[in-house]
Amino acid sequence: MTMVRLNGVSKTFENGVQALDRFDLDIGGGDIVTLIGPSGCGKSTALRLIAGLDEPSEGQVEWPKGRPEIGYVFQEPTLMPWASAFNNIWLPLRLRGVSRADARLRVEEALELVGLTEFAEAKPHQLSGGMKMRVAIARALVTQPTLLLMDEPFAALDEITRFRLNDELLALKQRLFLTVVFVTHSIFEAVYLSSRVVVMTPRPGRTAEETAISEPFPRSEAFRTSVGYAGHAKAISSALRRATDESRLDKAALEVHS
Ligand SMILES: Nc1ncnc2c1ncn2[C@@H]1O[C@H](COP(=O)(O)OP(=O)(O)OP(=O)(O)O)[C@@H](O)[C@H]1O
């Protein structure tokens, strides 16, 4: 069942840069869909449009069942350096006028979800990179979203931490019945996490190809080392290459005709 649909969405910024060109995307409830594509192809723009932080120039963002609560996780944890983990996680509720006392149970629940109960009073500089990202995820979860938008959240982390957070994300998704739209540059991360991978063309971004990863959840190390996993990664790598080559050929053809 569709939760959100991008229907022929184009986005051109005031400076004339066109980030998206008739981009179609259908996210079903419970999906975990990854957008992958060359740098600057409009992945973050697509997330911002879904979040309602920006408006499409053409096309529509449609919510057949109504717009749900949305959580947003950025590449950088963007925590307030002077504030404790607890106070950082409280922020979205505080902005909605919820007092610290009234927020306590929900903040503690969010801390527990990301395994940081013991670190409620720690300041960001006392936390590792992975722990800071867990705080950022807890902050996104504290408003109890059903849709989680994640923009390269684990890109800055070492591979071991990244793998661990991938597993934690999948566990959270199952536990909280989340729908997730995830952006990454890592083909392996896309395969491990996703029910579907959307390969985008270079800017202006469109859907080049879509691949279903039908491996059941929960996934584990056994999947990471399986032949099927390697096969999916290879297929997505080829799709990315095709998307880039075709776009280059299209541009060359345009130049010849102009
Ligand atoms: N507010 C803005 N004004 C003008 N141009 C913008 C704006 N935001 C993004 N762009 C441009 O739109 C294009 C798409 O940007 P976007 O951040 O969506 O790409 P991306 O695929 O997420 O890139 P990356 O993988 O490098 O993070 C880029 O060329 C970017 O410079």
Automatic annotation (TrEMBL):
Domain of life: Bacteria
SMART domains: AAA (SM00382)
GO molecular function annotations of the record: ATP binding; ATP hydrolysis activity
Keyword rRNA processing: no
Domain ABC transporter positions: 4-227
Pfam families linked: ABC_tran (PF00005)
Keywords: ATP-binding, Nucleotide-binding, Transport
Presence of the UniProt keyword Cytoplasm in the record: no
Similarity field: Belongs to the ABC transporter superfamily.
Protein name per Swiss-Prot or TrEMBL: Nitrate/sulfonate/bicarbonate ABC transporter ATP-binding protein
